[in-house]
Amino acid sequence: MSETSLYVLQQLINGLTIGSTYALIAIGYTMVYGIIGMINFAHGEVYMIGSYTTFIAIIGLLTLGVSSLPIVLLLALITAIVIASTYGYAIERVAYRPLRGGPRLIPLITAIGMSIFLQNYIRLAQGSRDMAMPALVTGGIQFGDPAVFEVSISWMQMIIWGVTLVSMTALALFISRSRLGRACRACAQDLKMTNLLGIDTNRIIALTFIIGAALAAVAGVLLSLYYGTINPYIGFMAGLKAFTAAVLGGIGSIPGAMLGGLILGVTEALTAAFFPSEYKDVVAFGLLVLILLFRPTGLLGKPEVEKV
Amino acid sequence: MQRALFPALFAAGVTFLLTCLVIGVKLEQVGSELTVTGADPATWGWIATAVVIVFLVQLFQSPLGTLRRRLPAIEAHGLLPGHRLREQLRPWLIALVIVGLCVWPFMVSRGAVDLATLTLIYVMLGLGLNIVVGFAGLLDLGYVAFYAVGAYTYALLSEYFGLSFWVCLPLAGLLAATFGCILGFPVLRLRGDYLAIVTLGFGEIIRILLNNWTNVTGGPNGIGGIDKPTLFGLEFSRRASDGGETFHQYFGIEYVSSHKVIFLYLVAVLLVLLTLYVINRVQRMPIGRAWEALREDEIACRSLGLNPTVIKLSAFTMGAAFAGFAGCFFAARQGFISPESFTFIESAIILAIVVLGGMGSQLGIIMAAIAMTILPELAREFQEYRMLMFGGVMVLMMLWRPQGLLPMKRPHLELKNP
């Protein structure tokens, strides 16, 4: 293969890696939107908190003398999920539940306030400087002609794909097979009717926030290990990107969020391959605008009927 | 009490989980190594206090709730004099306020006048955004983009073509309005929250472009040495530039540096008064009525033959124009601009001013702008916590008073009970 095509292949691999984490975060947006029709603007901050707890848990465990890498990573994953889910739950309870049923703009504004609050809360508690951690998972496989261009897939990238695949499958099974999952789907269809049928919709809504936060925490673990650096401001951009992914795939649709994340990640990686990398954010938002213009319901979304 | 015990324990547990790892443990970068240390006992003391407070509040929630309901609600409008009297007093009050605004800078310190100028910029931005958010009900999270367009218009035109502030002011407004129109045209068909995110994205795009288009905008280094406004060609510097004349030379008075600050302040007052006048007139025009009608019910509007796109676009464009004026003035006052001044947080602050003041209420917005700029100055020692409190207040305010401090009162008739 020629050098360019190998280079594009490498960018595709990188794009799929980032894209799968976008997809994980995007599910939080899309599930919440599907049920209560609001944009949980503070979702990106949950991802950021997940990254911080990952770092704290990993360094803490290593300091305590736990040396087996798989155990450290697993425990860090669990810690991040528990803490981030608690944040997801608390955000819903404090900032959104009291406003339910009011005008639509109001919860969006509290969400922005919550996002600013959480960002600065972490900044004050942990400092605003970048934290860097040496890579824990190193190595990978290389292929292609070393004389032309060597394509490499690191183990970390494979872990990201694997974990994303497992989480997505688990979520899909939960939503389609379990009783609670059925209740979630019922809520998404008609919140009032579900309530009349004796399902505590407040609990289901809280559950969606918790699931979304847990998946954002998984993304936090994966990305913080992949990049190796975190700061209190990473949540903003990641949240925006994930939201773009959710809209791209059709907000409210879970398979759409997965597809949207992957498309966004690949587009960004390919842009970064041929243009200065600062412009990849511009391309992401440009893509969002184009999608909304020509297909406002996204790739897999259903058109919304306006009722008087 | 017994029934409240479990939720209270649950809430306390949640609080503990929220705080234990994030506040109770500290990550530190020592060289290339990261370390984790437990926080000092005082911090853990705070965490424990927080957990206990949450527990107790949840436990005694129902008695507290009844207590709160007994407290009388605050009604700001009740404090104002009667309607008839207010109408009579209004022109006098306005005249008094204008005279007061023009006179007081001569009696206070230079710093206070400078702060007042900054406040007036925010008042102008708040009033402009109010057209979009308050009147037309469109949530615009990228308002700062138009502010940036205005500021960069003046900075670039003055640097490359040597145009003066007064020439650039209308140009900045026009260009920002054009931008608003171009950006608004495609996105205004979207529903509320989509619009919010797309405008946010546009705001970011503009900032990224300004940051990376280094050979024109200077990138992150910004543009410095922007000319200050002049009074009919009279400059406010110590020495006149080539072919110019300074204010103090022309009037044959001693050079005082605070003249420049006061002049800038008076220009800001003029701009704000102009903004208020224009908005108040437009609000009573058919287009202004249409904005509010559209906010209340889009479908009803459409069935009455109003074109929602044109109406929304006019609100968006007009809001953008005022941001352009404010940006132009900001560049002139600051003398230096960089993309750092136009981040998302700036949009959030302007939005917070509109929301805290009460969407649609101009008096409320002016109050909120004053509070938002003066309070951080007073609380200098809390500078660290400023943004934290800002976010918290935004949430609490919406929970406590979603309609804002001084909600808009629409003219209406009420049938009194016989």
Keywords:
heterodimer; A: 308 residues; mainly alpha; ABC transporter involved in vitamin B12 uptake, BtuC; two-stranded antiparallel sheet; globular; B: 418 residues; 2 domains; two-stranded antiparallel ribbon; two-stranded parallel ribbon; 17 helices; 67% helix; LivM-like (chain B); membrane (chain B); ABC_transp_permease (chain B); cell membrane (chain B); transmembrane helix (chain B)
Concise structural overview:
With 308 residues, chain A is mainly α.
Tell me what the structure shows.
- The complex is a heterodimer of chains A (308) and B (418).
- With 308 residues, chain A is mainly alpha-helical.
- Chain A has a single domain (3-137, 152-294), classed as Orthogonal Bundle (ABC transporter involved in vitamin B12 uptake, BtuC), CATH 1.10.3470.
- Chain A is built from eleven helices and four strands, in the order H-H-H-H-E-E-E-H-H-H-H-E-H-H-H.
- Chain A has helices at residues 3-36, 43-64, 69-96, 105-126, 155-177, 179-189, 191-196, 201-227, 234-249, 254-274, 280-294; strands at 131-132, 140-143, 151-154, 229-230.
- In chain A, the strands form two sheets. Chain A has a two-stranded antiparallel ribbon with strand order 1-4. Chain A has a two-stranded antiparallel sheet with strand order 2-3.
- In chain A, helix 1 (3-36) packs parallel to helix 5 (155-177) and helix 1 crosses helix 9.
- The radius of gyration of chain A is 20 Å and the shape is globular.
- The relative contact order of chain A is 0.20.
- By secondary structure, chain B is mainly α.
- Chain B folds into two domains: 2-63; 91-230 and 260-400, Orthogonal Bundle (ABC transporter involved in vitamin B12 uptake, BtuC), CATH 1.10.3470.
- Helices cover 67% and strands 4% of the residues of chain B.
- Chain B contains 17 helices and four strands.
- Chain B has helices spanning 2-20, 41-59, 61-70, 83-103, 110-135, 144-160, 165-187, 192-212, 214-217, 247-250, 258-283, 286-296, 298-303, 308-334, 344-357, 362-378, 386-400; strands at 25-30, 33-38, 234-235, 245-246.
- In chain B, strands 1-2 form a two-stranded antiparallel sheet.
- The longest helix of chain B has 27 residues, at 308-334.
- Chain B starts with a helix and ends in an 18-residue tail after the last helix.
- The mean pLDDT of chain B is 81.
- At the A-B interface, helix 2, helix 3, helix 4, strand 1 and helix 9 of A face helix 1, strand 1, strand 2, helix 8 and helix 15 of B.
- Chain B: Residues 4-104 form the High-affinity branched-chain amino acid transport system permease LivHM N-terminal domain.
- Chain B: It is found in: Cell inner membrane.
